[in-house]
Specification:
Layout: H1 27-45, H2 48-53, H3 57-67, E1 72-73, H4 74-81, H5 85-97, E2 101-105, E3 112-116, H6 118-139, H7 143-156
Antiparallel strand pairs: 1-3, 2-3
């Protein structure tokens, strides 16, 4: 079941109804969260692991997302990463030139399909082996915190999307 922003037309049971200030969204907290997320991405992107492996944060994430699929369209990968088509072209070209992915075109709709090569799988494993100890020491046994944060952030990414049942904007 996917998390969604609360539809105010639905009624909550009395014991689950938010009250007073708890129901208010704190814009100050929201902007602090965005600032912290921005700092996190900036700090992760300059970790020595990315210099030593010759691959950037966006490329690592793209490889990891694509590796979970037998082949993923460029459009789907761009959407998953939250990057533009132009940025996708740059990232996929760099990964392809390094031999980490294989790009192919489908005959229908001329879509780009991205498949991770064995070298790409090895690169993911190499980076994961370097990042995992850093992450484990940072979390200090609180791995559930990351799962909870991930779920909350995925829910919040729906901020710019129409409410469920609504018409999609084009």
């Amino acid at each position: 079941m996917q998390a969604r922003f609360w539809d105010r037309s639905r009624k909550l049971p009395p014991d689950k109804t938010p009250s007073g200030d708890a129901a208010e969204v704190s814009m100050a907290e929201f902007t602090q969260l965005l600032a912290a997320m921005s700092r996190l991405l900036q700090q992760v992107s300059v970790l020595p692991v990315f210099k030593s492996t010759g691959i950037g944060l966006t490329e690592w994430v793209a490889l990891s997302v694509a590796d979970g699929k037998t082949g993923i369209s460029g459009k789907a990968l761009s959407k998953a990463l939250g990057i533009s088509g132009k940025r996708f072209n740059e990232v996929s070209a760099a990964l392809s030139a390094a031999g980490l992915v294989r790009l192919s075109r489908t005959s229908e709709k001329q879509q780009t399909i991205v498949k991770v090569t064995e070298s790409g799988k090895a690169k993911i494993a190499e980076i994961n082996a370097l990042v995992h100890p850093l992450l484990a020491s940072l979390l200090g046994g609180k791995q559930r915190s990351m799962t909870s944060a991930s779920k909350t952030i995925r829910m919040m990414t729906r901020l710019g999307q129409p409410a469920s049942g609504g018409e999609k904007s084009r």
